């Protein structure tokens, strides 16, 4: 990551570049998707929120979120409720500054019920590589723990 010194967009002033930067190629779009998957699997709201512009706009299911602070609060709430969260993202399509992904993730609630969530996201990026818009549609399906696909060593 490198510091930006100037920007035409005040929302990205004095923030860091988040490579790969647009315009995307197949290789850089795949790398961006993998970086997002790795970050979200860290379940670290402070770290993950830095990938978004300070005024980033989200639609996550039926929730509308505006700005990095609300993103951090949302992610904290999410990962406090979705325990042992594990995500897999796959590139669906891309253009110069937009990427679409399909994804699935698994988690369990504090009652022990496991879920697999399926969804699609559309992302739009600022020139510095931070995401400025995220639209997510997600469906949850209850599963048995024995049906989990994503297992990892702790």
Question: Can you walk through the features of this model?
Answer:
- It is a single chain.
- The chain has one domain: Nuclear Transport Factor 2, Chain: A.
- It is built from three helices and six strands; from the N terminus they run ααββαββββ.
- A six-stranded mixed sheet has the order 2-1-6-5-4-3.
- β4 and β5 form a beta hairpin.
- The protein is globular and about 45 Å long.
- The relative contact order is 0.19.
CATH topology: Nuclear Transport Factor 2, Chain: A
User: What is the rounded Rg?
Assistant: 16 Å
Structural class from helices and strands? alpha+beta
Number of strands: 6
Distance between the termini: 28 Å
Could you give the order of the helices and strands? HHEEHEEEE
Strand order of the largest sheet: 2-1-6-5-4-3
Q: What's the tally of helices? A: 3
Q: What fraction of residues sit in β-strands?
A: 35-45%
Indicate how many domains the architecture comprises.
Answer: 1
Question: Main beta sheet: strand number and arrangement?
Answer: 6 strands, mixed
Mean pLDDT: 91
Percent helix range: 10-25%
CATH class, named Alpha Beta
Low-confidence stretches: 1-13
Label the overall shape: globular
CATH architecture: Roll
Protein name: Nuclear transport factor 2 family protein
InterPro entries: DUF1348, NTF2-like_dom_sf
Region (Disordered): 1-20
Pfam family, one: DUF1348
């Amino acid at each position: 990551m490198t510091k930006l010194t100037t920007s035409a967009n005040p929302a990205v002033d004095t923030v860091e570049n988040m490579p790969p930067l647009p315009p995307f190629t197949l290789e850089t779009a795949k790398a961006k998707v993998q970086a997002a998957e790795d970050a979200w699997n860290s379940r670290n709201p402070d770290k993950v929120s830095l990938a978004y512009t300070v005024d980033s706009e989200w639609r996550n299911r039926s929730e509308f979120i505006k700005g990095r602070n609300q993103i951090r609060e949302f992610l904290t709430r999410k990962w406090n409720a979705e325990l042992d969260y594990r995500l897999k993202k796959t590139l669906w399509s891309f253009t110069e500054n937009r990427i679409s992904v399909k994804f699935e993730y698994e988690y369990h609630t504090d009652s022990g019920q496991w879920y697999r969530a399926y969804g699609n996201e559309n992302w739009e990026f600022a020139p510095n590589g931070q995401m400025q818009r995220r639209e997510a549609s997600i469906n949850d399906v209850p599963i048995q723990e024995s049906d989990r696909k994503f297992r990892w060593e702790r």
